[in-house]
């Protein structure tokens, strides 16, 4: 997808058709998808799993990306989007099962669920 | 002298009659409320009330998700020019993924009608050329009822993705606001899909 909000809407159509869409993108694209998430997936009760790779924390090598990346949780909280963290505290061999659980939780609660994945360690 | 433009409601009535058994994704309040006025509440219509710019993307996801269920059937999107310009990137995505079932109507009135009729940039954009340049299988534009009928017959029998730009006027029907709970709209549409075609029914298991 060229833009995160477009991905949200494509995933919404796939979900309506009975598929199991998963969005994968980096956290600095959060701002691009809030409107379509809150005008489509949240009010229409469309479950959606988003896997969001984190930037802007310890180990960051870019001088500006933290400005939006470190606000990811706050933006999602303000938007009422349920999120879970997946980082070095979870053993590698549990990650696949945790992502399965997040998808099941999105289905069970009829809403988007985001998994914030930190590959930088913390 | 220029002929009178097609009315949007007239075009919507025609599209509904031409595709009574196909999924149709309707864009935003104006188009959705007028379709409700001329066609009533239809199981095959998915009403996307506020996700501006995302109508074609929703239909793209549907067309991809239904690819194996009924390869000859169509998935329609009814988009406006203002909304299209919010999410123009999807034209590239569609041309890249080439969903064979996708038929997109752009009802082009040239203005942002819901916010007071400010002009859009659509008047200066050749959408037929844009879609074709984005690798769509075909695109046409129409200005009259006869051209609309011919383009629709072509669109429904041609392998997608195809785009039909329909130049319409700015006349609007006097219609009431539509206040249905969106969660019910989504579930009604899912039920229609399940009852009308073979979908990967993942909603009833787990």
Ends apart, CA distance between termini of chain B: 63 Å
Strand-residue proportion of chain A: 15-25%
Mean pLDDT level of chain A:
95
Would you give the CATH topology of chain A? Rossmann fold
Strand proportion of chain B, as a percent range, falls in 15-25%
Q: Assign the CATH class of chain A.
A: Alpha Beta
Count of discrete alpha- or pi-helical segments spanning 4 or more residues of chain A: 5
Strand count, sense and barrel status of the largest sheet of chain B are: 6 strands, parallel
What is the strand tally of chain B?
8
**Number of H/I helices of chain B:** 8
Q: Summarize the helix and strand pattern of chain B as letters.
A: HEHEHEHHEEEHEHEH
Strand order of the largest sheet of chain A: 1-2-4-3
Give the CATH architecture of chain A. Answer: 3-Layer(aba) Sandwich
Fourth-tier CATH superfamily name of chain B: Thiamin diphosphate (ThDP)-binding fold, Pyr/PP domains
Largest sheet of chain A: 4 strands, parallel
SSE pattern of chain A: HEHEHHEHE
What overall form of chain A do the CA principal axes indicate?
globular
CATH topology of chain B: Rossmann fold
Mean pLDDT of chain B: 92
Oligomer: heterodimer
Share in helix of chain A:
40-55%
Structural commentary:
The complex is a heterodimer of chains A (122) and B (206). Chain A has one domain: Rossmann fold (3-Layer(aba) Sandwich). In chain A, strand 3 (82-86), helix 5 (95-109) and strand 4 (112-117) form a beta-alpha-beta unit. In chain A, 43% of the residues lie in helices and 18% in strands. With 122 residues, chain A is of the alpha/beta class. Chain B has one domain: Rossmann fold. Chain B is built from eight helices and eight strands; from the N terminus they run αβαβαβααβββαβαβα. Chain B has helices at residues 8-18, 28-39, 55-65, 81-86, 89-97, 127-133, 145-157, 182-196, and strands at 24-27, 45-48, 75-80, 102-108, 111-112, 118-119, 138-142, 162-167. Chain B has a six-stranded parallel β-sheet with strand order 2-1-3-4-8-7, with helices on both faces. In chain B, helix 1 packs across helix 2 (28-39) and helix 1 packs parallel to helix 7 (145-157). Chain B is globular, with a radius of gyration of 16 Å. At the A-B interface, helix 1, helix 2 and helix 5 of A face helix 3, helix 5 and helix 8 of B.
